[in-house]
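yo

u said u wanted the structure for the complex thing, so here. seqs first:
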Amino acid sequence: MSIFQGLVQRFQNFIQASAVRWSLFAVIFAAGILGFASQAVAQEKDIINILGDFIANGISSLIVNIIIPLLGKLLTIFVTILIELSKYNDFINAPAVVNGWVVSRDIANMFFVIVLLIIAFATILGKEEYQWRKLLPKLLIMAVVINFSRTIAGLLIDAAQVVMITFVNGYSAAAGGNFANALQITQLLQLNEAQLGSGGTTISPANIAGAAIFAAIMLVVSIVVVIVMLLTLVYRTVMLWLLIVTAPLTWFGSVFPPGKKYYEKWWHEFQNQVIVGPALAFFLWLSLATVGSGSAASIVSSELGAIPDEDKQSAAITKVGTLDSILSYLISIGLLVGGLQVAQDLGSSFAGSGSSWLKGQAKGAVKGAWGAAKFGMGAADLLQAQVSGIQVAKIPKKFGEGWAVRTKKMEQKATEKGLSNLQAMRKVPLLTATGIPSLLMDPSGFAKNALSMQGIVARTRQGLLGGGIDKAVMLGMAQRNATDAKKLTDENETENKGIVETRANQAGAVQTRDEAVTRRDDLQRQMDQGRAAVEFELLQATGDHQTTQGYNVAKQAGLIGENVSEGQFLQFNQKQMVGVEKKAATNAYDWRAQEPALNAQLSAADADVQQKTDAAARGEQWLQAAEADYAAGTPEREKREGQAGVYKEKERSWNAAYLRGESDYQTKLEQVRNQYEQEAFKNVDLTRSADELIGDLERGLAKGDKALVTLISKELSKRGSSDVLFEKFGIKEGGKAGLKRYTEEVLQGRAGVDGDYAMKTALRMAASEADKGNIGFKGAVKADPITREVKWQTDNDMAKSAASSMQGKTVRSVIDSTSPGALTRKRADGTVQLSPQAMGFLSKLNSNTASLKKIINDGNMKPEMLQALHSQLAELRRLEASGRLKKDFVDLIETEGAKVPPAVATDPGKVAQQMYAAIYPPAPGGTP
Amino acid sequence: MAIDIKKFNDPAFANQARQAASDALRTANVSAGMDLWSALRTLERQREQLDPAVKPLYAAALKDAFFVAFPALPNRVIVDTLPEYLPAVIDNGNYNLLDQFKKKLASIEIIEDRDEFRRLLRDVLSASEVVLTDMPIAVGQEKRSGTLKEWMSQYIATVGGGKTDSVKRSEFLSGKALSALSDIERARVEKVTKFFDYLKLSSLDPEGVPEELEADFVDEIYILRDGKLERVQPFEDALVQDTSNLLQAYQEDMATRSGELSPLEQQAEGVAKKMKFTGAWAQEMVRAALDPKQKSKAEEVIGALQVIFQKGKIADFLRGIESDIVHSLQTAHAGDAQALERRMAILKAGINLPGTLELFFKIVLVERLGLASSHAAAVAARLIARLPEAERAGYLDIAYYDMARGEFQWGGVKM
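structre next:
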């Protein structure tokens, strides 16, 4: 406790000291640089200038590129945490509190018995301090009170939180921006253009370095202030947790004289921490409300605002260096630190006086309670009776009855509240953060829905499983998808808009540059024309003006019309020449008068052109980079568009399902189908062999008995005999491919089972086969958890599903639960290849070669499994060559697979057939 | 029933049956186990005719077959037989009763039936006089026989009838009743009570759900295993990611090798070489294959097609057999005027169009030779690959290799 306090105190001291230290450091550093620079000017001006610039550039580069971004990020993070933490309001339900308090309360409860014994002994031995008359009343009260200590603490905290949250709500929404304004963050690196040129302020490396150092110092100070506030809140939160947790024990301790000081300390600390929160929030709100606009200087000095920007004193070339910015910054820091200090003091002083008051109240309560106890109940006598075996008085019956009535009422209230909560839950489409209905995320709800998806149904209406998902949830999912689709579309639009704006900005920059060039060219033309007029005068002075040279000069000076040719000019009569000469004299006179101004304007225009050309060039680079970024983001945007389309489609289908009330309809349909299957079930002997059952199925096909066909299909899959069934219908493929053909060609094509029912049957068949370890069927068919639509899965989905089911399992358990036949699948052309699900199996083994080796050496891998993998050795080698399988894994399969003899076991299926042949031998006529 | 008892009395045959049941158990081959159980159960009814030497072999085989077929056996059979086998089932390390029982439960589609089955088994175990332990149960001063019935009664008395509390269970296992038992007998009681605990759960209780349930939301997979709901992030997990990468590499490899001939096509090539098919002969073979009244061998017809496609000029070839195609269609769709009209429309659109060739392939390869659709598409694609390059380009859309599915698909060429 004291370590934390000390830390906070040290930080507070540090702020005060650090501002001075940092300022001192900055001044010395700047002075050093300036001193160094001025000395250098006197000695080796050029070399030192270059060296100075080099160092200054280095410093500014280091600070601007590394230190300031880092500090800026830290400040942002701390401000965000500060704001979030100040909103925290669930002290009594924090896991640390819930777990810790229960233990602490139980321990305290445990001690009551011991304490009663101590009191008994003390009473017998005549120890005054521990006499029952003194301690028992307190003990009794505490026995009740500690069990409500969490609630009591929670109530007091809540009272404080009401005040705190009021202020937090006042500043939280715009707090980030307010902090940035108050601490002048936005102006830290903004060039103060108004100051440039005045008083010798120029953009030089030294000035840039100075501004950078200045910004860094301001950031460091800001961070320290924010950290201290943050630590105060963190300390408060943790302390309140710990205080609630320790409440039962400290309160219990108050019964004894030695425990009293801890009890008092507890209350002191509790009140301190309870009060600090609202006080801090208040001062934080006050600070941000006062200086959040960033112009706190105007509060203390209205004159500052009247000074034009270019005339203000400035410590740096950035805006933050101006007098009013620094003043605003200092006021903001002062308000924050002052607020913090006052909040701490307020907490401490209130805690001091408040705890005495509370103690008084507590004493009063104890006295009052004890009076009541003595008056009505004689509970102490009862306790004494329990301890000593002598019952002084009987508990009045009413006490027990009253207690029972009260307990019952409380229970009733809680039940009502629970029920209303539950009803509310059912009404509202509860969505978790992931967007998946939370009703599905409780294991029980999940089990019901997932079972229903697998085609497991309940017979009775009461036990209705998966009456489907609540309609409201369906609607909720539709809404969620609409939101997701919009979000993705918006993201795309923002990016599109961004690039359009960048292009527009660049076009603007180019236009500005062109306008600057035109202005400069106009000035240049004026200059050139003026100079030419003077030159014409000079020619005139020597009488050489009506010559070819004179013509060219006159033309350049605009003294003659554009259409006048050289021949015409040379033929000009005197009158015409006088006109030209007069114009030349006027123009030359004008030019001479304007030349200095024109010169200045021209050089300014030149600089302007240079600046705008640079800006346009930079803009071009940015645009190119933005366009490259945009082009790079195109696949992502297309993906988003696609995903948005998927979401829109889901929204549409879920809305439609909601409107149709599909869930109920589907459930009823399944029940009806199930009834038919139950009827068919009565007429089939399921103890018969697979061949005999297939015979029954064929008879069912001939009769058009759909229920019999689906029932036997499912029964055979429960035995893992689906492949035998497929073969009978000429389907050579195994696993999903075979199941798909069987569903389409036999169930739908020949038996006429409708698409939905056929898919549900396929779903059950695949699930049954997968349960037998036949991973060739694993995830072949899946039901959408929301719409329950049953779909065939792609190979990739199936592989993913198989891998998911192997997650977290040992290699041994994966090997044990996998059927060897499932590792390969037969293709339609009769060849055998690895199944998609085998990819999950191979990945698992590939990354656990050592375990695999041990399992094989211990004889725990089925030889058939090794054989199946060995039969695909060429493929495994190719996968090794592509870098997906490890060499030692494939080598192991090659070595160990080769050791397995070709026929490792009998073929149990064939032996069974032989036995059948012996049980039903062919009659002499030839038919069995 | 004229059972061939001589064969069953042959020790070699009996040994083979015993071994087969044992192998079915080892490889968890439910299908074979069920067939073996069905045959052995029929034999059991004739057991008085069996030699004493082979009887134990068949009895052991029946026990293994019963256990391996457990998930597929009808409820009544399990209820009638399990108590008798129970001590042996528990003692045998190869039998995992709980696992098999879960598989059996998972195969029951109606929840109430699952619970009913649990209840039936509970009742049977609680009433069984089968001796579980030779040592009697010590209940206070009283000694009771170690039958299943008594053990279950003692267990329920300690832990209660509802969901078992683990503390109470440990209390029972470390209690006086078990103290006198040998290690084997103690293990037996532990296993039976564990099984009984599972029987007490409801199938609607997440812990009582026998199967592993999975729900695949947009970005997450949730799996319910043994009552616990776990979240899997499919694209973040290393194993799933490795699997995805491995599958992709595999699919790419399969795609690069999709031009390789299937065994049937290799055989067809051999036949074509051996029989030295000429163009005219090959055409006759195809014509015969189109005739619904004749039966053709797949390898011969495909061999003939390989010769025809090698030479090219497919439009001429189709023109030459147009009447046979029409005749084949008319016979095949004699009762379905609409289907006939649809397919005839394809022919009328033009004999040299890719759609017509696709129709021809489907008639010959799928309908007449009975190849699976994807196999036929693969054969068609590889036949088209034999065409001279200039001619091939027009027909490439007829069939293509679908990498994601790992098989050939028909292109469904638009007319």
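Chain A is about 75% helix and 0% strand. Residues 354-400, 417-439, 461-469 of chain A have pLDDT under 50 and may be disordered.
cya
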